[in-house]
Amino acid sequence: MQKYIEMTEKALHAYMKFEDKPQKKIYEAMEYSLFARGKRLRPVIMLMTAKMCGADPAIALPFACAIEMIHTYSLIHDDLPAMDNDDLRRGKPTNHKVFGEGIAILAGDALLNKAFEIVSEYDVPGVCKKTVLRAISALAQSSGTEGMIGGQVVDIESRNEDMELLKYLYSLKTGAIIRSAGVIGAILAEAEEDQTAAVDSFCLNLGIAFQIQDDILDVTGSEADLGKPIGSDAANHKSTYITLCGLEKSRDMVNKYTQKAIDSLAVFENRGELINLAETLISRKA
Amino acid sequence: MQKYIEMTEKALHAYMKFEDKPQKKIYEAMEYSLFARGKRLRPVIMLMTAKMCGADPAIALPFACAIEMIHTYSLIHDDLPAMDNDDLRRGKPTNHKVFGEGIAILAGDALLNKAFEIVSEYDVPGVCKKTVLRAISALAQSSGTEGMIGGQVVDIESRNEDMELLKYLYSLKTGAIIRSAGVIGAILAEAEEDQTAAVDSFCLNLGIAFQIQDDILDVTGSEADLGKPIGSDAANHKSTYITLCGLEKSRDMVNKYTQKAIDSLAVFENRGELINLAETLISRKA
Q1: Which residues on A lie below 8 Å from B122 (Cβ)?
Q2: Burial of residue B251 (number of CB atoms within 10 Å: 0-12, 13-18, 19+)
Q3: Do B110 and A145 touch (CB under 8 A)?
Q4: Tell me, what's the pLDDT at A142?
Q5: Residues A22-69: tens digit of each pLDDT
Q6: Concatenated DSSP letters of A37-103
Q7: Beta strands in chain B (DSSP E)
Q8: CA–CA separation, A64 vs A69, rounded Å?
Q9: In B, which residues are within 8 Å of A114 by CB distance?
Q10: What is the predicted pLDDT for the residue at B161?
């Protein structure tokens, strides 16, 4: 896992080199959140998937960086006073607390935009342009109104009282980007259709397990590990898997969805890294 | 001009058809600003350019819609309380006044994202995928930190006291997208390099003339025509071409830059529509 994180960090830094210009504040704001102890889960899933499908994981690096930028932009905008109004993220003041709301909004916009700048310039020998466009389309759909943004809208528009709506919300808000991380890795590796479907199923189930685990950590985690106050879901009067099914059943569900994710990978011989990743996530503390 | 506006309106409506889903509020918010009496200047420039370069303008329609969505998202975010804090836009309450700040931020995000969804799915027979990627790259660069967003950052970070900085700001904030409107039209039409350069020069000069005209209208225009209060630049203590060089000289500059724009088109036989557009913009009231 560590080597994929290092590949991602190095590539992200290379994309974030800028000259001293009148708009340099925006680069500082983008970097502040992009290099703030992120787990790099989505890039790692994408790179591991490309490898599992038989490709050099490096061919997925531009998309891995793009998806991390999209994830980061969503956190900056989520934290804004008009949304979740959070002061802390990963143990640091949130972007708008440091740079002000105007720059924080623009830094989010800029990271989303930069993601598409990077992938539109994708130029790796052996990967055809049609495949690149397919991958860009998968990325754009997963971050849009039928994906991540759609989930965020449901989150601020409802209190998620029923299980069906909560599942729908999670499948969009966190699930869509995690799914596309794997699917894009498979697309770029030119995987067979059944392989891509298996990856999709893996990520879908892993995403649900991940999100339920987040709910659990918001109740049982420590502020030092999480880098933000616990109990924020309760404070925001939001339903979660915990309030709807209780802690014990939620833990069972994390295990169940993780197992389902792992089972999806049966078609791959070379699945060790992703199985290991899935098992590690069950016991994560942040 | 009217026929290009109609083509754009029709295509925009086709892209904005959505099912009744829990996140439907976001579609309402996107539509509210997207169909709010916009001039469709950027799409018109793109479609006219594609035509002038010998292509069927319809091949540029997906990009024309995408650029209008990006323009619209920038207006929604610019109007937010954390930015210009405007209550009116084109005679209607601004997006956040109607939908609240959270949804307005997400509606902006969603329009930017949707622009890239549309262009990544571009599939017009005869236009090769490499050309599509070049056009997406031009679009993404013009709306990013070295383009529109960069200009917005300079705008909120400075009072634009000197002419050099003001020119830089204008070249990014309005100029970059107007330039890419023309350039993308030329790219999709597979224009020769000297033709693309001529289009770029036309749009660059037209963009400056357009922006200075905006400054003039903020002083001399009527609120009824503009659909928003006049004098907002002065109220925000922002330097403009008027405060830096006076009204008369600003008018001269609009004429000068418009003429320079028109002269750039000399290489094209079929340049009547764009010349006409440039001349119309000098006498615009809104």
Answers
A1: 133
A2: middle
A3: yes
A4: 98
A5: 999 999 999 999 999 899 999 999 999 999 999 999 999 999 999 999
A6: S---HHHHHHHHHHHHTTS-GGGGHHHHHHHHHHHHHHHHHHHSTTTT--SEETTEE-HHHHH-HHH
A7: 88-89, 92-93
A8: 9
A9: 144-145
A10: 76
What is the reported pTM?
A: 0.97
**pLDDT of B259 over the 70 cut:** yes
**Can you tell me whether residue B239 is helix, strand or coil?**
coil
pLDDT by residue (tens digit) across B176-200?
A: 999 999 999 999 999 999 999 999 9
Q: Does A113 touch chain B (CB under 8 A)?
A: yes
Q: Are B253 and B245 in contact (CB under 8 A)?
A: yes
Is the backbone of residue A90 left (phi > 0), alpha (psi -120 to 50) or beta? left
Is the distance from CB of A26 to CB of B153 less than 8 angstroms? yes
The pLDDT value recorded for residue A140 is: 98
**Token pair in block for residue B211:** 């922006």
Q: Which of B82, B136, B172 sits opposite A120 (nearest CB)?
A: B136
Q: Reduce the DSSP state of residue A16 to 3 states and report it.
A: coil
> Which residue of B103, B122, B145 is in closest CB contact with A23?
B145
Task: Check CB contact under 8 Å for A149 and B109.
Answer: yes
What contacts 24+ positions apart, CB below 8 Å, involve A192-199? A194/A267, A195/A53, A195/A267, A195/A268, A198/A264, A198/A265, A198/A266, A198/A267, A198/A268, A199/A49, A199/A52, A199/A53, A199/A264
Residue A231 reports pLDDT greater than 90? no
Over residues A138-182, the pLDDT tens digits come to 999 999 999 999 999 999 988 767 889 999 999 999 899 999 999
- Residues written for chain A: 286
Q: Which two tokens stand for residue B249?
A: 């000289």
């002065």: which residue's tokens? B234
Chain B hits for A113, CB-CB cut-off 8 Å, are 112, 140, 143-145, 149
Q: What distance in Å separates the CA atoms of residue B250 and residue B27, rounded to the nearest whole number?
A: 40
List chain B residues with CB under 8 Å of A101: 82
CA–CA separation, A276 vs A271, rounded Å? 9
Residue B237 has pLDDT above 80, yes or no: no
Helix (H, G, I), strand (E, B) or coil at A245: helix
Chain A contacts of B101, Cβ < 8 Å? 82
Is the minimum CB–CB distance between A142 and chain B shorter than 8 Å?
A: no
Asked if A143 is an interface residue toward chain B (Cβ–Cβ < 8 A), one would say yes
Q: Mind listing the pLDDT tens digit for each residue in A59-99?
A: 999 999 999 999 999 999 999 999 999 999 989 999 999 99
Q: How far apart are CA A31 and CA B23, in angstroms?
A: 31
User: CB-based contact (8 Å) between A110 and chain B?
Assistant: yes
Per-residue tokens: A26: 């925006």
Query: CB of A165 within 8 Å of any CB in chain B?
Result: yes
Nearest residue of A to residue B155 by CA position?
Answer: A23
